[in-house]
């Protein structure tokens, strides 16, 4: 009763080791030092989230001297460029909100750390730091000093192998062994078999049954006890509390019967209960892992990159076909998909995808360039060092820097149901127990345990993630790639759709191009093709494909001004390509086509005229969409094609032209201010701001390596005509969730009605519980596949 606990780590303090500092008790100088560090740096809030959340820091001096070796450090770092480096470290001690808080505030302990992000399920922290002023070894020692020593295994980092947590498998195996043997030993008592040896050795068999139940009760079910304890400590009741309580009550009751000689107890039901619950958990984890694998590696982005062959011929190939030694051409605004060596004389690389810092870094020929960088300016060539890592591109797309603040309606609904469900369930269980205890004690314990087990809201909690997860996978196979499952929910809420024109509702595959103006020589055409080669704008790509094959010419400078045009130069010539206003300061009023004006060495030559070809099925798509959504076309081009679009698109479609990128963004904002839920469909180039501002931003991709973090989804251009079908499927996904909620609630109501009346044994409840999970997951899978088949014919 008089024992003291350490304020930092919570361990009981022996009298001789007590250290008092700042009116607080500590078990050792290490814990006291950590407290001092946090106090001096105004990080005392660490102790507000949890009581005694820390761990006693260990003496690790000399343990990480191998981090002085730059070769080893380079293998550990995810990214290193100039003075910026990023490393992900495994921190086994991460276990609560205090851990997350302190690890995401490391910059307050060490100014050289720019940012740190915790991945709680994986127990890792991703740290961005200034590698000029701070070494990785210093970060490791800092973490060790505050009780968060990282686990570093060079083998894991070099091979990419991941530690597999097999604890659940071991627990399931133990539970199955105990359950199977106890069932066999219990058969004589089930059927009341009268036989000399069985009658005389009945006490021995009961002792054996009791002994076999202990590993299942103490080891296999331990996860439920720990989860329930942590839930009670944090004053938030989770779904593991009734499960843990039911197991403990059943064990205590069975032990009482066994000791007093009343019978063999319910050890068979107990071990069966634990086994079937763990089996359900294993099923859930395996299904999640499957969905995650499908998402990261099979639903690859529709991104291609230009490969340059030995005869200088350019070929567009999927990024997953890139192999070591390939020579790639990276244009302006293209993402570098792999690590490589720069071949071109120089390059300016923007690593904001990785670090959040948008200042381009200058690279010279022979320098290493990292995956995730974005080329700014003229096109460059590089040689591939490693094949593409699709999971790394997924990580870039999901970078917290580009995340939107999205409503989480279904998740919140599930959380609310689980929060109220547990106390209501406990009340029903205790009331039922109180009623039956005065009638039949055996029935009372059975009812109490059955109620706690059968009404577990696992199935209820799984409806949204499994529905959205399967829809994600289905859409990925249909070349519609969503950033995360919450985008499906947002798609279902959309009431207004805004389309960009060039490169979105028009295609650069079929446009007819003519030239009007002073005749261009072959040399001038060669120069123009080399200039537009570096650009990713749809107009540039159309012109590049239209012009004949030419020799490669080195550009001295290249600048692409969003919404206007291109400024470029070679050693002898300067170029200005773009809109009429940009090239020679005049406004086109009567043009009925999209145009690209040409100026060379301050001399205006003429313009290329693009007679836009609209995407197949455009008119039918807009007609169908107009029945449910407000439609708008927002274009940076002039209004020359108003008449064509009015004939092509349904009445009521709003057409807005001559919009600069910032005006597109403001237009989206104004719609949202008027209560609209807006989906923006663009090409990911000039529309980045509008895509980011919209509730759902969809980037259309042809075959170029344009990777836009601003968008929520990437749609392969060939699937554009199916956009309405994808929207219908998102509506059906929410319908499936509602149906699943109803089924799960009905199951709980029926199960409880049988349980409280004493007509449901705990073992049957234990079998029904994972079966309900299987039922729900099967239901949402079948329904989502059915709706996919109906909508995505």
What summary fits the major beta sheet? Answer: 7 strands, mixed
Mean pLDDT: 77
Question: How much is the radius of gyration in Å?
Answer: 33 Å
Low-confidence stretches: 154-164, 291-302, 406-413
Number of strands: 30
**H/I helix tally:** 29
DSSP helix fraction: 40-55%
Q: Spatial order of the strands in the main sheet? A: 18-30-29-28-19-26-27
Measure the end-to-end span.
71 Å
Class by SSE composition: alpha+beta
Q: Shape, please?
A: globular
Architecture blueprint of SSEs:
Layout: E1 4-5, E2 12-13, E3 19-21, E4 24-26, H1 29-40, H2 46-49, H3 70-76, E5 79-81, E6 84-90, H4 97-103, H5 106-109, E7 113-119, E8 124-130, H6 136-145, H7 154-159, H8 167-190, H9 196-200, H10 202-220, H11 222-233, H12 240-260, H13 267-298, E9 304-308, E10 314-318, E11 327-330, E12 340-342, E13 346-350, H14 352-355, E14 361-364, E15 368-369, E16 374-376, E17 380-384, H15 390-397, H16 409-436, H17 441-454, H18 458-477, E18 480-482, H19 486-493, E19 496-500, H20 501-505, E20 506-517, H21 522-533, H22 538-546, E21 557-561, E22 565-569, E23 574-578, H23 580-584, E24 594-600, E25 603-614, H24 618-625, E26 630-634, H25 642-648, E27 654-656, H26 661-673, E28 678-682, H27 688-693, E29 696-701, E30 713-716, H28 723-756, H29 762-791
Parallel strand pairs: 19-26, 19-28, 26-27, 28-29, 29-30
Antiparallel strand pairs: 1-2, 3-4, 5-6, 6-8, 7-8, 9-10, 9-11, 11-17, 12-15, 12-17, 13-14, 13-16, 18-30, 20-25, 21-22, 22-23, 23-24, 24-25
Helix pairs in contact: 8-10, 8-13, 10-12, 10-13, 11-12, 12-13, 12-17, 13-18, 13-29, 16-17, 16-18, 17-28, 17-29, 18-28, 18-29, 19-28, 21-22, 28-29
């Amino acid at each position: 009763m008089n024992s003291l606990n350490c304020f930092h780590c919570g361990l009981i303090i022996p009298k001789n080791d007590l250290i008092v500092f700042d009116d607080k008790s500590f078990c050792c100088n290490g814990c006291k030092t950590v407290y001092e560090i946090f106090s001096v740096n105004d990080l005392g809030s660490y102790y507000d989230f949890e009581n005694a959340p820390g761990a006693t820091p260990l003496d690790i001096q000399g343990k990480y001297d191998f981090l002085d070796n730059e070769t080893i450090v380079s293998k550990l770092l995810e990214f290193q460029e100039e003075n910026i480096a990023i490393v992900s470290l495994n921190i086994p001690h991460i276990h609560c909100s205090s851990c997350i808080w302190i690890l995401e505030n490391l910059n307050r302990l060490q100014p050289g750390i720019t940012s740190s992000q915790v991945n709680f399920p994986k127990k890792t922290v991703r740290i961005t730091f200034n590698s000029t002023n701070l070494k990785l070894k210093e970060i490791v020692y800092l973490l060790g000093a505050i009780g968060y020593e990282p686990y570093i295994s060079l083998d894991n980092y070099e091979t990419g192998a991941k530690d597999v947590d097999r604890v659940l498998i071991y627990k399931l195996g133990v539970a199955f062994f105990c359950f199977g043997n106890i069932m066999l030993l219990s058969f004589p008592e089930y059927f009341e078999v009268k036989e000399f040896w069985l009658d005389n050795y009945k006490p021995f068999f009961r002792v054996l049954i009791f002994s076999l139940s202990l590993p299942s009760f103490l080891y296999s079910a331990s996860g439920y006890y720990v989860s329930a304890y942590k839930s009670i400590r944090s004053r938030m009741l989770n779904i593991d509390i009734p499960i843990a309580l039911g197991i403990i009550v059943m064990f205590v009751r069975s032990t009482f019967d066994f000791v007093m000689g009343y019978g063999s107890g319910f050890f068979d039901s107990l071990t069966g209960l634990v086994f079937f619950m763990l089996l359900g958990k294993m099923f859930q984890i395996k299904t999640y892992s499957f969905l995650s694998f499908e998402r990261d590696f099979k639903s690859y982005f529709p991104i291609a990159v230009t490969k340059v062959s030995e005869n200088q011929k350019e070929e567009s190939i999927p990024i997953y076909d890139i192999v070591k030694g390939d020579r790639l051409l990276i244009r302006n605004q293209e993402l570098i998909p792999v690590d490589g060596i720069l071949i071109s004389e120089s390059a300016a690389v923007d690593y904001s995808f990785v670090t959040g810092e948008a200042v381009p870094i200058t690279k010279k020929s022979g320098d290493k360039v990292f995956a995730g960088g974005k080329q700014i300016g003229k096109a460059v060539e590089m040689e591939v060092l490693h094949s593409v890592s699709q999971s790394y591109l997924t990580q870039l797309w999901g970078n917290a820097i580009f995340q939107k603040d999205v409503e989480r309606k279904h998740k919140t609904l599930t959380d609310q149901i689980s929060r109220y469900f547990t106390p209501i369930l406990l009340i029903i269980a205790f009331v039922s127990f109180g009623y039956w205890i005065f009638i039949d004690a055996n029935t009372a314990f059975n009812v109490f345990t059955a109620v706690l087990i059968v009404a577990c809201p696992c199935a209820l909690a799984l409806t949204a993630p499994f529905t959205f997860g399967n829809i994600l996978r289905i859409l990925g196979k249909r070349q519609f790639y969503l950033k995360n499952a919450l985008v499906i929910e947002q798609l279902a809420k959309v009431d207004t759709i805004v389309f960009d024109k060039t490169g979105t509702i028009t295609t650069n595959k079929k446009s007819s191009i003519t030239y009007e103006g002073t005749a261009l020589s072959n040399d001038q055409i060669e120069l123009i093709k080399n200039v537009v080669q570096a650009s990713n704008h749809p107009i540039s790509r159309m012109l590049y494909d239209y012009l004949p094959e030419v020799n490669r010419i080195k550009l001295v400078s290249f600048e692409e001004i969003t919404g206007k045009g291109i400024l470029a130069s070679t050693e002898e010539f300067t170029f200005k390509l773009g809109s009429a206003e940009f090239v020679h300061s005049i406004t086109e009023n009567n043009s009925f086509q999209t145009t690209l004006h040409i100026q060379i060495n301050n001399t205006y030559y003429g313009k290329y005229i693009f007679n836009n070809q609209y995407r197949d099925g455009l008119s039918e798509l807009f007609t169908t969409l107009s029945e449910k959504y407000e439609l708008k076309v927002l274009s940076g081009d002039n209004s020359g094609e108003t008449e064509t679009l009015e004939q092509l698109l349904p009445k009521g479609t709003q057409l807005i032209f001559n919009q600069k990128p910032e005006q597109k963004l403001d237009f989206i904002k104004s719609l949202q201010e008027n209560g609209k839920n807006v989906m923006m469909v663009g090409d990911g180039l000039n529309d980045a701001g509008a895509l980011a501002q919209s509730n759902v931003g969809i980037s259309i991709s042809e075959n170029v390596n344009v990777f836009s973090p601003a968008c929520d989804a990437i749609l392969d251009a060939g699937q554009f005509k199916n956009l309405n079908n994808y929207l219908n499927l998102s509506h059906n996904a929410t319908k499936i969730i509602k149906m699943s909620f109803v089924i799960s609630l009905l199951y709980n109501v029926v199960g409880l009605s049988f349980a409280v009346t004493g007509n449901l044994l705990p073992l049957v409840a234990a079998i029904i519980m994972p079966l309900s999970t299987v039922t729900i997951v099967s239901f949402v899978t079948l329904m989502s596949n059915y709706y996919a088949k109906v909508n995505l014919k």
